[in-house]
Structure formats: structure tokens, C-alpha cells
Amino acid sequence: MIRIAATGDIHYDKNSHNRLGQHLIGIEEKADLLLLAGDLTQTGHPDEMRILAEDLKKCPIPTIAVFGNHDYHFNEIQIAKKILTDSGVILLEASSVIINIGEIKIGIAGLKGFGGGFVGACGSEFGEEEMKAFMRHSKKEARHLEEVIKNLNTDYKIVLLHYSPIEGTLTGERKEIYPFLGNYFLAEAIDYGKASICFHGHAHSGIERGETPGGVPVRNVAQPVIRHAFNTYTLN
Ligand SMILES: [Fe+2]
Ligand SMILES: [Fe+2]
To answer: How far is the CA of 224 from the centre of ligand 1 (A)?
Structure first.
């Protein structure tokens, strides 16, 4: 049995010292790895990322993260990335990592994802260049994700995103903003890639549980949704 601790949208700011760190003491008794589903910081400012990195240094289990839209805001993504990875965190950007837990190989495919919308209410590659670029980016991210998942030859394939691949976990959000909360191309990638489970964040007012059209479990682990430092999930 594999135990996964997952959380997202921790939105660290300059006053967040030890906010997550205090919950990481003894986490190895409860989980084999920790997943962070983006929006690690409020603005992506290096000082915010440094405060988070200090906390994550204490984490005794492998910690795997993706960035969220907030982490891009300050526009110092390379610096933020270095600070985070120097603390030992594995940052996934359309990439994967394999973690061995005993005899079991766990593949984790991660990327931020993007908006775009869902079947019947999504953008299209039509009209203005800005609109075409938006949708092109959504689709490109999803195509990357599918490739990364398909290339994993592991006992379990976990997908870690920031944006949502389904509408199911957005219930409670205003319908008008669904196209900014995720897109269904990501769900297609998860289904075609035959993933075991997907974690995402970003939808603070959504709900925790949903599944892709192909039946892959999806968990929205945004902290305002799970209302704990992290939730623990098991794969049997
Ligand atoms: Fe967020
Ligand atoms: Fe977000």
C-alpha cells in the first residue's frame, strides 16, 4: 500500500514561516511521499519561496511539486525554481519522476496545466491571435502531459497538476470562470495515458472528489477545499 500526502494552494507569503513546516514533523509515519499541487506562493516572489523552502527542507519524505499561476506572477520563475529545488523538492514541469517505495515503482507526471474550458463551453483556436495562443497553449500542455504519462512504465502513474482536468471538482465555483480553472484536454491525457489517480488545486471553492470520463479518480487538494495542512490517500 502506498500512502500519498497531498495539498495545494498553500500561497506562502512573507508571514508564512513554519505554516506547513509544523505539520511535516512525523509525516513519515503517515505518508510515503508529499505532493504539492501549485500556488506554492502568493506572488512567486523569491522571499516567499525562500520561506517555503525553509519549511520543506524539514520534510523527511520525497516532496514533489508543480507550480501554479500565482508562482508566475512576480515573473522570476527561474529564481523561484532554484530556491525550491535547492531545498530538495522535485519540481515537475511537463516531466516525471520515479520514486521507489519498497518494491513498488511510483511514477509521477506533473505540469501546471492551463485554462481553456470544458466540453460544450470551451475556447477554440479561432479569431484573434491572443485567443488562438491561449487555446494552443492549453492543448500543448495537455499533449505534453499525455506523452509524459505514456512514457512511464511504473506500477502506479500519479498525475500532479495545478489546473483542473474536470468540471466535477469545480462544483461551488462560479460557472463563468470554469474556462480559467482548467480544461478537458488534460482529462483526455489522463485517460489516454492510463493514469492511476490525479491531484490538482487552483479551484479554492470547488469540491475534493471527482473522476475523469474514463473513470480515473481526481482529487482537488487545494487547501481551502481539504481544510487541513494535507490529506492522505492510499493506493492499493
Ligand atoms: Fe490558488
Ligand atoms: Fe491557482
So the answer is: 9
The reported pLDDT for the residue numbered 8 is 98
Task: Please give the pLDDT value at position 233.
Answer: 98
Closest ligand relative to 162 C-alpha:
2
Q: Tens digit of pLDDT for each residue in 140-181?
A: 999 999 999 999 999 999 999 999 999 999 999 999 999 999
Expressed in angstroms and rounded, the spacing between residue 75 Cα and the centre of ligand 1 is: 17
**Residues within 5 Å of ion ligand 1, judged at the Cβ atom:** 9, 39
Residues sharing a CB contact under 8 Å with residue 176, sequence separation 6 or more, in sequence order: none
**H-assigned helices in the chain:** 46-56, 69-72, 77-86, 129-150, 184-192, 223-226
* CA 113–ligand 2 middle distance (angstroms): 10
Check the CA dihedral 183-187-190-195 and report its sign. Answer: positive
**pLDDT for residue 118 is more than 90:** yes
Question: Nearest ligand, CA of residue 67?
Answer: 2
pLDDT at position 62 is 98
Which superfamily does CATH assign the domain made up of 2-235 to?
Metallo-dependent phosphatases (3.60.21.10)
Q: How far is the CA of 222 from the centre of ligand 1 (A)?
A: 7
Mean pLDDT of the chain: 97
**In the chain, domain spans:** 2-235
